[in-house]
Amino acid sequence: MAELANCPQCGRIFAKSFRQVCDACNKEEEKMYELVYKFIRKKANREASLWEVHEATGVPEKTIIRFVKEGRIRAHQLPNIAYPCERCGKNIQDGRICGDCNDRMKKDLHSHEELTQKHIQEERITYHTEK
C-alpha cells in the first residue's frame, strides 16, 4: 500500500508510490521534458549549452540537470551540457561527482581502511610477562 506524502513541489497530498511528486507535477515535468527533448533533438541545437537550452525552452536548469542525472537525457551526446560536481563544482556530464573527486575519495577510503586495520592489529598485540 502506498504511503501518503506531500508533494515537494506544490505541497498537495498524494499517494507516494514510485514517483516522488504528485500526478499534476509529474505531468508538468513530462511537458518540460518534451520541450527539452524536442529542442536538443534538432541537429542545430546539439551544441547548445545548459543555459541556452534553459533560455530556449524556459525549463529550469535544475530540472534539466535532473533529467541528465536520471539518464533521460544523455549528455555524452551533447558536448556542451554540463553541470557542477557536487563536491568541487567542476563541470561534469555524468554522475554526481567528477573523476578527480572520485579518485580522491577512493584514496581517502583506502587510507582510512589501512589506518583502521593498523589500529585493529595494534589492539591485538598482547604481551606475556612472568611473575
Coarse shape = elongated
Quick one: how many beta strands? 4
Oligomer: single chain
Structural class: mainly alpha
Main beta sheet: 2 strands, antiparallel
Spatial order of the strands forming the largest sheet:
1-2
Q: Report the uncertain regions.
A: none
Taking all Cα atoms into account, the compactness measure Rg is 24 Å
Distance between the termini: 69 Å
What share of residues are in beta strands? 5-15%
DSSP helix count? 4
- Average pLDDT, to the nearest integer? 87
Helix/strand order? EEHHHEEH
Could you give the topology of this structure?
Blueprint: E1 3-6, E2 13-16, H1 23-41, H2 50-57, H3 61-69, E3 83-84, E4 91-92, H4 99-124
Antiparallel strand pairs: 1-2, 3-4
Helix pairs in contact: 1-2
Brief descriptors of the model:
131 residues, mainly alpha, two-stranded antiparallel ribbon, two-stranded antiparallel sheet, 4 strands
Structural notes for this entry:
- 47% of the residues lie in helices and 9% in strands.
- With 131 residues, it is mostly helical.
- The strands form two sheets. It has a two-stranded antiparallel sheet.
- A hairpin with a 6-residue loop joins strand 1 (3-6) and strand 2.
- Helix 1 (23-41) crosses helix 2 (50-57).
- The model has no long low-confidence stretch (mean pLDDT 87).
Give a brief outline of the structure.
With 131 residues, this protein is mainly alpha-helical. It contains 4 helices and 4 strands; from the N terminus they run ββαααββα.
